[in-house]
Input
Amino acid sequence: MQYTDNTIKKLSKTQLINLLERPYTNSPDLGRLVKKVFTDIKMEGDKSLAYYTYLFDKIKLTHFTIEAAQKEAGLRTLDPGLKEAIQLAKKNIEKFHRSQILPSEKIEISDGLVCWREDRPIEKVGLYIPGGTAPLFSTVLMLGIPAQIAGCKQIVLCTPPDQNGEINPAILYAAQLTGIKSIYMIGGIQAIAAMTFGTESIPKVDKIFGPGNQYVTAAKQESMNYGIAIDMPAGPSELLIIADESAEPDFIAADLLSQAEHGSDSQVVLLSDNSKIIQKSLDALRKQLEVLPRRQIAEEALKNSHAILLKNIDECIRLSNDYAPEHLIMAIKNAKTKIKFISNAGSVFIGNYSCESAGDYASGTNHTLPTNGYARNYSGLSVESFTKKLTFQEISKEGMKQIGPAIELMAEAEQLMAHKNAVSIRLKS
Amino acid sequence: MQYTDNTIKKLSKTQLINLLERPYTNSPDLGRLVKKVFTDIKMEGDKSLAYYTYLFDKIKLTHFTIEAAQKEAGLRTLDPGLKEAIQLAKKNIEKFHRSQILPSEKIEISDGLVCWREDRPIEKVGLYIPGGTAPLFSTVLMLGIPAQIAGCKQIVLCTPPDQNGEINPAILYAAQLTGIKSIYMIGGIQAIAAMTFGTESIPKVDKIFGPGNQYVTAAKQESMNYGIAIDMPAGPSELLIIADESAEPDFIAADLLSQAEHGSDSQVVLLSDNSKIIQKSLDALRKQLEVLPRRQIAEEALKNSHAILLKNIDECIRLSNDYAPEHLIMAIKNAKTKIKFISNAGSVFIGNYSCESAGDYASGTNHTLPTNGYARNYSGLSVESFTKKLTFQEISKEGMKQIGPAIELMAEAEQLMAHKNAVSIRLKS
Output
């Protein structure tokens, strides 16, 4: 982790932003490969799906669903303590996400003219849960719970099987808890293509959610060319901490590492007005790093990471806003008085006991958040991500009399006479 | 307009959907051209902007802003009646969009654990207003008003100048009313590229809004490769009307034409359970078409358009949901009892006096809506389109004691030990 004392070095805003440039570069151009897989799966469906699963994942699958007996056996092996933990997380996530549904209010714009909005679920949604070394069952909760609350009619979950053609029981359990019945053992580009077009086995969906590697990211982008919506652009996870003298260096170090262990392309940033806190945090970080199982990954990530001493906390907040972090920990006293100055961040953790891990798993907020600076222009996942808002209006004859003449004038000025006539014919009647 | 009596023909659901296939095909691959313009404007800024404005629009511009004197002169020529009409529209649109801001509520998930969301404006937004034959000042209102209500700090408006290097005074007036100060006379791919990268004259933005032709659409898609967000995918405008015996054929005909005059690739659909209403509407349409200034365009659009007789109104609603129209007029009695069955539509107009023109201009709802079937998975524009939601959480030591053990178990099961440690170190303290 590189240390910059900017009270001495006095880098400009632009220089600081350049210093914090993310190590992430856009996915390599996988365009040709992705297009080939999409074309094949569109044409040949399941057959092609099996072919690519063998080609990419080295697994021979004759079917993509999990048999009931296999599922039951898997669920029986799951540790009861972990089950309870997942239940608690589910309860909290559900409580927070339920609060996101707000009643629709009818607005009387003028006499005889009422407008309002109503939410409708996106009917068919696809959830992608990556495979790899760790079974990301927490992401099943983070995608499945808002989908269920939104009332999506069809929730499809795709996740790659392990080498034995099986799915981790914790994923199965999280899916069961959130009412997801359609689980398919496919991953990668081919899973996204299958949900884009539909195959004999896999249903076509309207919107695709979930994290993934560069292949999945490129495939999600390609799906948008076929009328599919996606949750948000993807990039490696990141954390920025603003700390003052009231912060706990051990906690800061633990939080920085919890982010750094995600991947070698992760980035962590520590901003402070207090050089001792920075120094102590970096010392603690070195100690904690030594015993970390994912030490190598974290070390790589720390190479791209920075601790910066600034003049005061307001400067820290300004730089954080320019960086637009996915996660922001505010380990400062009176953090609440500073909240209103936070303009760009995915999720904000206030005080010494609000660690990112809490939001990653169990506090209630969603962990699917905008990365790579997208906190400037995207929200994290919420129930709204699984719904759309329809506008409604009801105009009476009286109401039309009041706004009709204005519409006639405006339509005529835009040279759209049939627009005008639709009003004139009503005013004349 | 083709007539299908499906009570006799008995087309299946799939056959009906195929019948209603939109004439719109994806933009031709403008990829190479768009990439060239983007690269040049990124490298050469204003110089390249002037070059492409001359190349594409045949206008030599030495600067891209409007001089104050020119603006004042333009505004003086504007008809006072039209000004009043625009003011009324502004008032209504503002009233409806203001109602979209809802207070944030703090949710106590459990003792010592509070989560909530807060809205923040997207700081820099770019509004694109197309040129062409008609000055789309109504779109300035539809984009500018929610941007202003959201509190966007920098609102940039780009619109191509006419052959005299001028901008229509109605556009200037609508911009003035909505507090937009940064107006630039550029259009097409080069305008979108300029807002993507920023040039000496044009500020870089975070999100780009607004309609446009195939060049603008392709450029907006390209901007997403550079971290820019866009409002929604674009396609030609469309209208579906569900009518029963209570509908007014003259009104139906006028509404169908108001949509058909938009462009030769527009599509209109009339669904009814009453053959007489369809017949009378088609008769009225032929009569009204004869005197329409944009008759040729409307006639082209009507070639892709359909009137379909179905068994009952519920069948009409089901087919409408499958089609997912941008605009839906429900000219039926007891429309309100049917609203809950509408699952996919951009904006819904209820009863004989709620014509689409009202929503296009002045009733209060936004006219920037999902087309081409995107009403399945996108909302129309709202204040939320100009904001993002940040999540916050505050956990006390006591709160951490309650959820900490669950987080530890889950993190360990996902093999993320640093995530676990961030909790353990707090529980131990």
Chain A touches chain B through 129 residues (CB under 8 Å). The domain at 396-428 of chain A is CATH 1.20.5.1300 (Single alpha-helices involved in coiled-coils or other helix-helix interfaces). The longest strand of chain A covers residues 113-121. Chain A has a mean pLDDT of 95.
